[in-house]
Amino acid sequence: MTKTPERLTQRSIRTFVLRQGRMTPSQKEALATLYPKWGIAWNPDAPLDFAAIFDRTAPVVLEIGSGMGDATAAIAEANPDIDFLAVEVHGPGVGNLLKLIEARGLTNLRVLRHDAIEVLERVIPESSLSAIHLFFPDPWPKKQHHKRRIVQPALVALMVSRLKPGGYLHCATDWEEYAHWMREVLDAEPLLTNDYPASAFAQPRPAWRPRTKFEQRGQNLGHPVWDLVYRRRAAPVDSLPSE
Asked: Which residue ranges are tagged as binding site for substrate?
């Protein structure tokens, strides 16, 4: 078992609700026939060996909540020298992404159908990831539900512990209040530094990040989007030598 920050040893609140929805026949078939090929079986006692999974040594990017997988597949297809692990709990999304992997022959993309926080806690080795993508997580807008947000100090500390020094955490949201929440939590993490000038609240959408269907719907309604990119320091700021 990989080491988990002490602040996260008693987590019981879920950051998602399992809304499975209706799976199409092709999504069901993909889960049955393609998950054994492109999926990773959940084993909480076996840390992932990325070199064995992808049959090579390359930077690894974890995507938390890949949705229907269209943007995930597009990013992986455009970056064949990088390996991607998509973690998603919802069956229709996993099935759709498996179909995209097979159709496009994406040998650099795998899927793990499980709770992303348990994945981080149990099977992602420390300092093993080059990046984590967290695009449009549930904002849990009601105040009494804010405790369910995935961007919390202890959860961010867990994510950062899995990043290599110099690796980045990229969050995107179209919920303004959540964007401010994210900034506050990310700014407070001593092992993270903002990858964009401090004078700007967020950065423009990077050209490499495709718009998701969900994002496009929001923008059609006039919803702005905030991209926040933070990079892991080699050491906490209070232990860095003074200039």
From this structure: 142, 174, 212-215
